[in-house]
């Protein structure tokens, strides 16, 4: 059974940090690029970051560069999203997704598997 399970979300003050985890099972993890997306209330889901499967290339939404860092541990079938200097506008449900493409893509339709999401709330 394919599963992507996000964890690590929660309530954090502005300027704080969180590390999200995406634990995968049921498929050959190291063949898949993994992306993080987020959806804020009343807004469309948007791409946040992605890490490829072949050479570990990383990609970030322009507005997030320098604050978020994506990484993967293939031995643990897990991808991490380290988020720092968080802002209230980062409040959203964060989803991870897996695509059999070995390269990253921002097109949601190209992702084969999705997690259930984890809530991140940035507020004082």
Describe the protein.
The chain is 0% helix and 48% strand. The chain has 124 residues and is mainly beta. It starts with a strand and ends with a strand. The mean pLDDT is 94.
Radius of gyration: 13 Å
Counting DSSP H or I runs of 4 or more residues, the number of helices is: 0
Give me the strand/helix succession: EEEEEEEEEEE
- Structural category: mainly beta
* Span between termini: 39 Å
Q: Runs with pLDDT <50, length 5+?
A: none
- Residues in helix, %: under 10%
Q: Characterize the overall form.
A: globular
Compute the number of strand runs. 11
**Main sheet makeup:** 7 strands, mixed
| Overall average pLDDT | 94
Q: Strand share of the residues?
A: over 45%
Ordered list of secondary-structure elements with their pairings:
Elements: E1 3-7, E2 10-12, E3 18-25, E4 33-39, E5 46-51, E6 58-60, E7 68-73, E8 78-83, E9 92-99, E10 113-114, E11 118-122
Parallel strand pairs: 2-11
Antiparallel strand pairs: 1-3, 3-8, 4-5, 4-9, 5-6, 7-8, 9-10, 9-11
Write a compact overview of the structure shown.
The chain has 124 residues and is mainly beta. The chain is built from no helices and 11 strands.
Key words describing this protein structure:
four-stranded antiparallel β-sheet, 0% helix, 124 residues, 11 strands, globular, single chain, mainly beta, seven-stranded mixed β-sheet
């Amino acid at each position: 059974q394919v599963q992507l399970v996000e964890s690590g979300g929660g309530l954090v003050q502005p300027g704080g940090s969180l590390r999200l985890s995406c634990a995968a099972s049921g498929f050959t993890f190291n063949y898949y690029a993994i992306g993080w997306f987020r959806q804020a209330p009343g807004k469309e889901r948007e791409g946040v970051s992605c890490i490829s499967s072949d050479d570990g290339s990383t990609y970030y939404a322009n507005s997030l560069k320098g604050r978020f860092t994506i990484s993967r541990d293939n031995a643990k079938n897990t991808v991490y999203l380290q988020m720092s200097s968080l802002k209230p506008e980062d409040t959203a449900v964060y989803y991870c997704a897996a695509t059999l493409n070995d390269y990253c893509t921002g097109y949601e339709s190209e992702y084969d598997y999705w997690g259930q999401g984890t809530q991140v709330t940035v507020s004082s």
